Amino acid sequence: MEASHTSQEQSASNRSNGADFRSDTVTQPTPEMLRSVFEASPTDVFNEKPSSFEQYMARVTGKEDALLCISGTMANQIALRSHLTQPPMAILADERSHILTMECGGIASLAGAMVQPNDIYGCPTRVVEFENPHMGAVFPLHDMQAISEFVRPLGIRVHMDGARLWEAVVAGAGTLEEMCGPADSVSLCFTKGLCAPIGSILVGNAAFIRQARKVRKGIGGAMRQPGMAIAMAVAGVVGVFGQAEAYGSESMLLKGHRLAQELAHVWTGAGGKVSMPVQTNMVCLNLEALGSSEEDWVNGGAERGLMLREPKIVTHCQIEPNAVMALKQYMIDTLAKTKSVAHPHSF
Questions:
Q1: 144 and 54 assigned to the same domain
Q2: What is the DSSP letter of 173?
Q3: Is the pLDDT reported for residue 51 higher than 90?
Q4: Can you tell me the distance from the alpha carbon of 323 to that of 263, in angstroms, rounded to the nearest whole number?
Q5: Where in the sequence is the domain holding 208, given as residue range(s)?
Q6: Which of 116, 184, 203, 329 could anchor a disulfide with 63, C-beta 3.0 to 4.6 Å?
Q7: CATH at 164
Q8: pTM value?
């Protein structure tokens, strides 16, 4: 289960995603992941027991049990449907959250729940959901604990979309177990920054996972031969994130964090503004202050061989150095067109 950081970093120069700042979902399997596929058992990589990897993930997150899912969206929707069993019911979530904006209305179609503002005439809240991190900003542990302590006595469950929770752990927000503690259920993705092509894990107590397993079966989410997916997930957890029992201080995810800080420093140093704290691997640029449109920003980057989307820059461990230099120069050239910058710089 050992992985070589050097070989993973060297292979980045041969990838097609080296200048892709649109999302960390563009990461590709590492050499260690590809090798692990050939060595994997068709059913499982741990002791030939289908549940052994799930037990491992439950242990490192401090939960009783875990359930392997195909995607983060599936994990979130299974969690919500498992929590929400008796209508009427509503979910309290950030209006920008993934479950509202990116999951095809699954809350209503699969869980049968409403999403609405607080209203005496509305459905009672049964689940509070939050993402951590969100738009690159870490949800502090003490805030999560305060929310959990407030809502749990009211019979309200807490679900965390922790697709990128690994990033928050690497940023020093807390251990994986500590960060999962305030939530009744947590979903974590092996794709995105961890570079696996498929897979998420849903963790919670034993009774919750028993129900979630039934829901997964009902929507066709069980895998007959999960061994290859598990092998790549293990390579992501151990080789990219770092040992899950630790803080991830030696994590390859730190490369993305350093790049984000570098880019934010160039942008703000040249007079630009960011709309969210830069704490992990995302830089949210404030283009409105420049009078520039998202379309202009994306098209201008494309002319320089940079793949951009929205005013959000997402970094990952497979970004190439020359792409970083090109993006820095593009930032400065963009700001030079405004009154914020008098003269362009070069790198």
A1: yes
A2: S
A3: no
A4: 11
A5: 40-241
A6: 203
A7: 3.40.640.10
A8: 0.85
